[in-house]
Amino acid sequence: MIVGLGASLAPLDIAVNVALPAITRHFQLALADVQWLVICYVLVYGSLMLACGKLGDLFGHRRIFRIGLVISAVGCAACAVAPDWPLFLWARAGQGVGTALALSCTPALATSLYPESARTRALAGFGMAMSLAAAVGPFLGGILVDLWGWPAVYWVRVPIALVTLGLSGLLPSPRPDARPFDAIGAVLLAVCMSTLLLSLVLSQRREVAGVWALALFGAALVLGWTYVARARRVPEPIIRPSLFVDPAFTVPNVMNVLANLAGFAILLLTPYYLVNVLKLSALSTGLVLALAFAGSLTGAPLSAWLVARIGQRPTAFAGVAMVGLGLLPLAFTGAATPVPVVAALLVLEGIGQGLLTVSYIDIVAATLPVRDRGVAGSLSQLTRTLGIVSGATVLTALQAQGAAGLMGIEGFLAGYRHAFMVAGGGLLLVLALSTLVPRAWLRHHAR
User: Fold this and answer.
1) For position 272, what pLDDT does the model report?
2) In the predicted model, what is the mean pLDDT of the chain?
3) Can you state the angle between helices 247-272 and 373-402, rounded to 10 degrees?
């Protein structure tokens, strides 16, 4: 419960999406400027995740988790009282630091509470906590904004962080590890990831020349190569590049990125479909969208059950397949599609995400040594972040491509269908191609 409460701070940030119009009015922003609220947060926590996981492995996951909770509480409070937009963005960046520190250690903390034989069940509990917070976030955000205004979506997380901090003393506190921390490697990796994420973000902003996004992407590749060269020379790198030489490890990581990329279509595009095409109210739209997270809430414990019976990798394969099978039929929906049909597809996609999340983290945790459990957990969060950020870029471009030459609802629906066709169909196609590497999905890591 303690770990789940702390982990919930990250998915509860979905509540901020509901507050975006109010924040835009308060700071008198242009619509394009408000995107930096999300960008600052994601860039910071995404780029620091692996380094923070390594800090947890070396100095104790509980210690790093607690530091993250303190910084998260301060960051949220600073966002709520920020007098101007620049200070608000600095506060969001600070909140991102807190999220990276706390979230990177939560899978490791969850598994440390149980014997290694119960690792998958512990990860299922972690996944359920994240899904529940994500489902509650939009409703909580709407209620808070209506009652107390947009600062409430930040204030509400301050007591959650402080209560978790107070209870965290009950968590196990292993002795610090004597291994050295590669500070230079951490900086290289953080700058590489932030540059990569920023290139993905800028690639979808029309006011920024495409050459800048391309240059940043090239810089990220150079930084990544530099990190790999260094990691081969130092005795204790943040994460060993040699792990990714094995397709049995690389393929599940890539598929997790792609499943999160494709699944982001639901949060990015489906709200507009429900409101503008199916003519649902805001409340009904929220209820329907919450079904995807309810599916994830169901899929997490089901994943633990399946892993014990058929293994991690077949369960992960089934999860990716269900995500694709939930998304692809949405490409054939329209104004006459019954709401229950759409809802059923969202539940199917959500169950697939729940199956994948738990089994995928379990694969990563089983591959890396137990002493690197923080790096394993942070890697699983990083691949999810890469999928979501790249999804915002790819899916926006697909929707625009499908809607080319058409206007209004007709144009939106054409773009919506095209995006889901490519997202769902493409995911299933890549999954089929991945079977050419049979070791990626065989049960050789099952317990």
Assistant:
1) 82
2) 87
3) 50
Contact 1, 109 (CB under 8 A): no
Residue 384: count of CB within 10 angstroms of its CB: 24
As a whole number of angstroms, the distance between CA 138 and CA 291 comes to 12
Give DSSP secondary structure letters for 36-91.
HHHHHHHHHHHHHHHHHHHHHHHH-HHHHHHHHHHHHHHHHHHHHH-SSHHHHHHH
**What's the confidence (pLDDT) of residue 447?**
39
Question: Would you say 52 and 193 are in contact if contact means Cβ atoms under 8 Å apart?
Answer: no
Q: Which amino acid is located at 95 in the chain?
A: Q
Read off the pLDDT band of 196 (50, 70, 90).
confident
Q: Which residues of 69-96 are buried (b: 16+ CB within 10 A; e: fewer)?
A: bebbbbbbbbbbebeebeebbebbbbbb
What's the sign of the alpha-carbon dihedral 185, 177, 244, 96? negative
Rg of the chain taking only CA atoms, in angstroms? 21
The C-alpha atoms of residue 163 and residue 128 are separated, in whole angstroms, by: 20
Residues whose CB falls within 8 Å of the CB of residue 17, separated by 6 or more in sequence, listed in order: 138, 141
Backbone φ, ψ for residue 185 (5° rounding): -60, -40
> Are the C-beta atoms of 424 and 327 separated by less than 8 Å?
yes
Total number of residues shown for the chain:
447
Alpha-carbon distance of 11 to 380, in angstroms, equals 15
Give me the residue label for tokens 């493409």.
426
pLDDT, tens only, 345-384: 999 999 999 999 999 999 998 898 888 888 988 898 889 8
Q: In the numeric block, which tokens belong to residue 134?
A: 């994500």
Please work out, in degrees rounded to the nearest 5, the angle formed at the alpha carbon of residue 379 by the alpha carbons of 433 and 291.
70
Question: Which residue type is seen at 368?
Answer: L
Q: Which of 112, 113, 140, 129 is nearest to 354 (CA)?
A: 129
User: How far is CA 427 from its chain centroid?
Assistant: 18
Q: Which of 153, 173, 159 is nearest to 19 (CA)?
A: 153
The beta strands (E) that lie in 300-390 are given as none
* First-to-last C-alpha distance (Å) of the chain: 26
- Residue 222: name the closest of 201, 195, 182 by CA: 195
